[in-house]
Amino acid sequence: MAKKRIAVIGGGITGLSAAFYLKKEIEANQLDAEYVLYEASGQLGGKIQTVKRDGFTIEQGPDSFLARKKSASVLAKETGIEDKLIRNSSGQSYILFNDKLYPMPGGAILGIPTKWGPFLQTKLFSTAGKIRAAGDLVRPRVTQEGEDIALGEFFRKRLGNEVVDRLIDPLLSGIYAGDLDKLSMQATFPHFQQLEEKYRSLVLGMKSSIAKQGAQPQKNTKGKKAPGMFLSFKGGLQTLVDAVEKHLDTDSVKKNAVLSSINKLDGGYLLKFQDGSEDRVDNVIMATPHNITYDLLKDRADISYLNEMPSTSVATVVLAFPESSLKKDIDGAGFVVSRASDYSITACTWTHRKWEKSAPEGYALLRGYVGRAGDEEIVYKSDEEIVDAVLKDLSHIMEIDGKPEFHLIKRWKKSMPQYEVGHLKKLEDVYKSVEAELPGLLITGASFGGIGIPDCIDQGKAAAEKILSEAK
């Protein structure tokens, strides 16, 4: 009897994780199965792309992951690179509003106040805005059990428009490059709704949650800063991609393999590729963006939602300067921009401060972000226009003298899936159709159950475990 053959389509971090855990489980349990990973491009990692240039370490996609989400750190340990994990420098973060940088209020967790002292002292909000936010302490619940509403609606009812527009929106919208008033509560931050259900007050719920988790930063007796919330690797996130790839069987990784069709057979699938090659497999894990998944499966299952799901285009704009060019030196990790502000950029990271050894001694590395839901036009402009726009914005804040020594722009067109209200319910219908019409095929990845690196790793691992459990 032939081995059960499992194909993973897509070599981003979800597909890589699926392949890694397939191999691990097959070997650990001596299963009569094999895997193959197909990637359309010439390199693995998907949006994880680290560039080394002139002594700089530059991330063109994500630059880190949340330390509290453990799956990425676990994968690092399993691939032997745990010693390469590094934590970000916990410098001050800022909000840009009305041409002025305001320090992030102390104790604000994703924009939600958990310490009233810093919140009352900040000049980011008016007195009326602070009073309105304090109303959360007495306001009744705004959602019903199981109800999915927009993040914006939820936070506006609980904390008021001012706190949402000036603090919460730039923080949370930055994660998804989305519109807070359309993004689904249940698909993005269900924890907030659960806190409201349990504690009624969101502020009290957050404070209680932090106390139970022991997550409140501890004061260091030596006066050192608390550790940062984010992790990466020495040499950049590509370090993780390379480590996972090294643990995969060379013959089981196929790059530059563009899948053109998936044909259902009795007891399996026939994969056809643009170069004319074919592969007969028993199971398929589709770890591709939703639009690609839709194009490949639309004739075989009712997955119309994947064609309707919107995506936002964004770009990262990296600028390298001698530190002497920054005439107004700001001690911090970076800032996010209030949507009400008249700027092209949505955020900026002072990478040379956030990550040690990301720039040579005496140099600064700035990473700007452009593009978000409803404001994507700039992503499609020329490099010169984008750089000029970003420099114009930064010069208002940092007083930059001269042009950058070099710049790198990475456009991610229609790359940020938008989990709008109803996302999870619509996905349920998609999953049911795929399960009924395409048994032994799973769809997963950033378009479905979380866009962060740990979320994608979790999804890849879960897909591998499910496929193998069915194969036993």
Layout: helices, strands, pairs:
Layout: E1 4-9, H1 13-28, E2 33-38, E3 50-53, E4 56-59, E5 65-66, H2 71-78, E6 85-87, E7 93-97, E8 100-103, E9 108-109, E10 112-113, H3 116-121, H4 127-134, H5 151-159, H6 161-176, H7 185-188, H8 190-199, H9 202-213, E11 230-233, H10 238-247, E12 253-254, E13 259-265, E14 268-273, E15 278-281, E16 283-286, H11 290-297, H12 304-308, E17 311-322, E18 334-337, E19 345-350, H13 351-354, E20 363-370, H14 383-398, E21 406-417, H15 423-437, E22 441-443, H16 446-449, H17 453-471
Parallel strand pairs: 1-2, 1-16, 2-12, 7-18, 16-22
Antiparallel strand pairs: 3-4, 5-11, 6-11, 7-8, 9-10, 13-14, 14-15, 17-20, 17-21, 18-19, 19-20
Helix pairs in contact: 1-10, 1-17, 5-6, 8-9
